[in-house]
Specification:
By secondary structure, the protein is an alpha/beta fold. It is built from 22 helices and 16 strands. About 5% of the residues have low confidence. The structure holds adenosine-5'-diphosphate, magnesium ion and zinc ion (ZN).
Length: 634
């Protein structure tokens, strides 16, 4: 966007280099070129002898220094000479008296700023290089130095976003809430006449990929007003004051286009708790945040600007941002449910060709936990696959593969795996699958595969819940742990040895067990307490840190309890698999042969061997991310 600024460092280096070169042209070396340098005494001798035809004196005076001069001339014989003298006026007088043509030139070289630049050259060069690299290092590195305080918000004036609400699916509540804002932007007077206060700041909160950015653009499209779109990270700069200046500029600009809509994406980049982080104190981010607060407060009541911001980390936002009069309206854009996913799929399937068997309902059911961006991705992957296979329509098969790609990464058939390893993987996955089938209430197994996928998993067992679930029982959690451990158990039973392949299983199992004890009050010995204060990235489900608020003794008790849970589940899995070794052999062999077993096939294999059909599912269920267990992590 701003190449000039980006290359500023480079230009600086160039300028300095040119100046240095020019300066070097002006130095005595140049004068010496065609001249023979003679000593001063030689020169006076020649002068006395009247041997000199022309004399040229260049004063070399530098202010504050004693004067000296470059004396050059031509001897009677035509040879040119050059020497340096001190008492210039004497020489000139003497020579003139002898009738020699004398020219005296004013000081010319060593202009002070040139010499200054020359002496500073190495420093300037370093600064130049530094600026250059800093510019390149900056994320989105453009427009640093000269565009400093100007906002980088994109203004969509003439080409206002064309997308409308129908491009956003599966978040009806959010759309409804935004409707009010849109009505206001369309006709602010209507609201003002009634003295109604419309929220000035709206915060869209939700996990990544749920369509927050899309929703904001669609809102601008619906309202058909100028739309300033920027991102929190654009206010975060190296130099103190720049971010604040940009905020000021953004709001000044916006005022000119009222009624309008300002959108700040990823607000958490600047809106973090003040005083948090290592820098502490009054740093750049704080200034920027303060400026935003000032601008929000400055939105006077007759202003027609509305600010929408989006974040997936509302928990880390500075509370001041969320106060009444600021971002006081929160709109949650949550992960879509089955219906939502179906709608989103339909939006993205609109302008593509599909075979008749393609059913958005079925696809939506297979993608619990996925968000809008994933759905878009699935359709796109499927389209790519269909194109690669030279089909003119996208089939259900393509879409299924698309789902798996999005969930577990692309197949990596080229990865070379030895026969023995393959066998271990097959038994490991069969173990997961059988235990998942046997245990009541476990999510149905959708697919077992020993084709490597993604960057890490060598095999996986994909379990998909039948519906979106919001609650989970203790026994279900125990089952889940048992299923996670069963891959390892299977290896142990069959090979009498274990591999590193279960690392991810163990990690997840331990995490569940720990949560049961410390958060869910599911441990008899520790009881109904919440232990430790987990700070989570709430929408990413990732732990950031844990404040321990319990003693060493309790920590010990927790560890013991976690181990007890794991052990119990392990025994359970072991019991199930030990009893069914022949089934394990059978499924593993089929898997080795075909590499993939789907739900129906697995059902058939299980029925032949095991008369026990999996019992009915209990009513209350909880959602799980359909993460296939990533086995055999490298
Ligand atoms: P966020 O800002 O919440 O991280 P985005 O708005 O950037 O998510 O979504 C990325 C893309 O995913 C969008 O451009 C859109 O194509 C698709 N998408 C996400 N959510 C939806 C939705 N609810 N309806 C339709 N498409 C969606
Ligand atoms: Mg976004
Ligand atoms: Zn496993």
């Amino acid at each position: 966007m701003n190449k000039v600024a980006k290359n500023l460092g480079l230009y600086l280096v160039l300028v300095v280099a040119v100046v240095t070169m020019v300066n070097s042209f002006l130095t005595p070396e140049e004068l010496q070129k065609d001249y023979e340098e003679i000593s001063y005494s030689q020169f006076t001798k020649e002068l006395e002898a009247g041997n000199i035809k022309i004399l040229q004196i260049r004063n070399n005076t530098v202010p504050g220094e004693s004067s000296s001069a470059v004396i050059q001339g031509e001897l009677a014989g035509g040879e040119r000479f050059l020497t340096y003298g001190l008492n210039v006026s004497d020489i000139a007088e003497k020579a003139a008296a002898k009738g020699i043509t004398v020219t005296v030139e004013a000081p010319q070289r060593n202009v002070w700023w040139v010499s200054l630049l020359t002496s500073l050259f190495p420093t300037l060069l370093l600064i130049g290089v530094w600026v250059y690299f800093m510019n390149n290092m900056q994320p989105g590195g453009s427009g640093r130095l000269n565009a400093f305080g100007r906002t980088k918000a994109k203004l969509y004036m003439d080409n206002k976003p064309k997308i409308k609400f129908d491009a956003v699916a599966g978040c009806e509540e959010a759309k409804e809430e935004l409707q009010e804002v849109i009505e206001f932007l369309k006709d602010p007077e209507k609201f003002k006449k009634l003295g109604a206060k419309v929220p000035k700041g709206v915060l869209l909160v939700g996990p990544p990929g749920t369509g927050k950015t899309l929703l904001a653009r669609a809102a601008a499209g619906e309202a058909n007003v100028p739309f300033f779109s920027t991102s929190g990270s654009e206010f975060v700069e190296m130099l103190v004051g720049v971010g604040a200046a940009r905020v000021r500029d953004l709001f000044t600009q916006a005022k000119k286009y009222q009624p309008c809509l300002i959108f700040i994406d990823e607000l958490d980049a600047v809106g973090r708790h003040r005083g948090a982080g290592l820098g502490g104190g009054h740093d750049e981010r704080e200034q920027t945040l303060n400026q935003i607060l000032v601008e929000l407060d400055g939105f006077d009541d007759n202003g027609n600007t509305i600010l929408i911001a989006a974040t997936n980390r509302p928990d880390i936002l500075d509370p001041a941002l969320l106060r009444p009069g600021r971002f006081d309206r929160h709109i949650v854009v949550d992960k879509p449910d089955v219906r939502g996913r179906e709608e989103i799929l339909k939006v993205h399937m609109k302008d593509k060709k599909f075979a008749d068997d393609v059913d958005a309902v079925v696809l939506a059911r297979r993608t619990p936990g996925l968000v809008g961006a994933d759905m878009e991705n699935i359709v796109n992957e499927a389209a790519l696959l269909a194109a690669r296979k030279d089909r003119d329509k996208i089939t259900m098969e393509d879409l299924e593969e698309g789902i798996e790609r999005v969930m577990a990464g692309p197949e990596r058939k080229s990865r070379l795996i030895s026969e023995q390893e393959k066998k271990i993987i097959a038994y490991h996955e069969s173990g997961h699958a059988i235990v998942a089938k046997i245990l009541p209430g476990a999510d149905p197994v959708h697919k077992i595969s020993i084709i490597p996928r993604g960057h890490a998993a060598l095999g996986y067992t994909l379990q998909l819940p039948e519906k979106d679930k919001f609650l989970i029982s203790k026994s279900e959690l125990m089952n889940r742990i048992a299923i996670l451990l069963s891959g390892r158990v299977s290896e142990e039973i069959i090979f009498n040895d274990v591999t590193s392949g279960a690392a991810n299983d163990l990690e997840r199992a331990t995490k569940i067990a720990r949560q049961m004890v410390t958060e869910l009050g599911m441990s008899d010995s520790l009881g109904l307490v919440k232990l430790g204060n987990r700070r989570q990235e709430i929408f990413l489900g990732r732990d950031i840190s844990e404040d321990r608020n319990y003693s060493e003794e309790v920590a010990y008790a927790i560890d013991k309890e976690v181990k007890a849970i794991i052990d119990e589940c392990y025994e359970r899995a072991k019991e199930i698999l030990t009893e069914r070794q022949s089934l394990l052999d059978k499924i593993a062999n089929v898997l080795l042969e075909r590499e993939v077993i789907d739900a129906e096939e697995l059902d058939k294999l299980m029925k032949e061997e095991d008369k026990e059909t999996p019992p009915e599912l209990p009513e209350l269920r909880v959602d799980t991310l359909p993460n296939p267990s990533r086995d055999f992590l490298a």
